[in-house]
Structures are given as C-alpha cells and as structure tokens.
Design goal:
The protein is an alpha+beta fold. Helix content is about 30%, strand content about 25%. The protein is built from two helices and three strands; from the N terminus they run βαβαβ. The chain is elongated, with a radius of gyration of 16 Å.
C-alpha cells in the first residue's frame, strides 16, 4: 500500500528544547560532527489504492490544518513513498 509521509518542524524562531537537549548529548556520546539539532514530527498516511494528485492535495491540506500547528510549526515535506519506504514523488 502506498504511504504519504508528512514532516513537520518547529518554525525557526520557535525554541526547540528537545532538539537542544539532543544537541547537548551528541558530543558526550562522541558525535562531534553536528552543530545543531531540531526535532520535528513525522506522519505516515497509508492509502488504499493509487495515490492521485487529489489525494496528495488532501494530504497537504490535512498537514496544514490538522497535523501541524501553523502558529509554531511548518509543514516541510509531503511526499509519496512506496511500500519499501523509498521516495516516489517530489517534496512539497
């Protein structure tokens, strides 16, 4: 079954305490290659049947109206992935 993946991130101006905690822990665990971490949310919407442009548009609308809080978050990606989890469509 096709899956539509929606990624939501805090707006850049919004404090991200979880990302900050992860950013502080990484060097202590030997991961010194990274200078910043932001944590977001991922949603997977499973579709029965073929994914049409209308279904992708509905996923984008759901992402903007329900899956994210537009005051503090941005929808940064809406994409179709195949059953194996590989990219099949361009990012939103």
């Amino acid at each position: 079954m096709p899956i539509i993946v929606v990624d939501v991130m805090p707006k850049p101006e919004i404090l991200d305490p979880q990302g900050k905690a992860i950013n502080g822990a990484l060097p202590r665990l030997g991961f010194t290659q990274f200078s910043q971490v932001r944590q977001g949310k991922r949603f997977e919407l499973t579709v029965d049947g073929e994914v049409t442009d209308e279904i992708l548009a509905a996923a984008r609308k759901a992402a903007e109206e329900m899956l994210s809080n537009p005051v503090i978050e941005d929808v940064v990606n809406v994409e179709l992935v195949d059953e194996a989890g590989t990219d099949d469509e361009a990012h939103a």
